[in-house]
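Run log // design_07
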């Protein structure tokens, strides 16, 4: 009988991201769920073909992000005057004087970071979705994508715009443009992508494919 090293014992354990309870890693069949015995948080929920769907949804969301940035976002009509605005134009409106840091923050959180995160997910998972070995530095890229997740606020932006539209509707005629609907579709696609993503399964697959 071979002795078990502390490192191998740790490799056989996973911690709940909510309550830090430790669990032994077990095989979870696609379609089943492994939950934390203490708080009920889902730890693993593998699905057949999930990685291919995640890559396709991430690529779709990246295309929608490009459309949302450059196409007209809203059109305001009041007093016989009409004004169109895009997301890029809204960011650049704060780009003068002491408002420059605000422009950088808005541009980063609603455009740059979400778009970079979608590209990072596609880069890290696409080769494995095709049955290949992981790309170079795939683990580091996926870790970066996960670290940036709380700061990618495209969904918060579209919710804020929807609330603002309700308040402005009484003062002016507000017509959503193509970019608005692209952003709305982006939110739905992102929700679907996150619903298919089992992060622990992805890490295990990265490790296994890297060793093979």
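design_07 sequence
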């Amino acid at each position: 009988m071979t002795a078990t090293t502390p490192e191998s014992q740790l490799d056989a354990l996973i911690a709940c991201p909510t309550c830090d309870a430790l669990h032994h890693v077990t095989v979870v069949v696609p379609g089943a769920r492994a939950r934390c015995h203490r708080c009920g948080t889902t730890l693993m929920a593998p699905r057949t073909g999930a990685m291919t769907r995640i890559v396709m949804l991430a690529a779709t969301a990246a295309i929608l992000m490009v459309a949302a940035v450059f196409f007209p976002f809203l059109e305001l009509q009041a007093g016989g005057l009409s004004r169109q605005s895009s997301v890029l134009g809204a960011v650049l409106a704060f780009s003068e004087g002491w408002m420059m840091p605000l422009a950088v923050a808005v541009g980063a959180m609603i455009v740059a970071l979400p778009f970079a995160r979608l590209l990072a997910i596609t880069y890290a998972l696409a080769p494995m979705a095709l049955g290949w070995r992981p790309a170079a530095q795939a683990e580091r890229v996926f870790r970066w994508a996960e670290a940036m997740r709380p700061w990618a606020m495209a969904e918060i932006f579209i919710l804020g715009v929807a609330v603002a539209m309700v308040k402005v509707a009484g003062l002016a005629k507000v017509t959503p443009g193509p970019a608005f609907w692209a952003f709305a579709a982006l939110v739905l696609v992102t929700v679907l992508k996150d619903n298919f993503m089992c992060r622990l399964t992805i890490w295990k697959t990265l490790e296994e494919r890297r060793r093979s």
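The radius of gyration is 22 Å.
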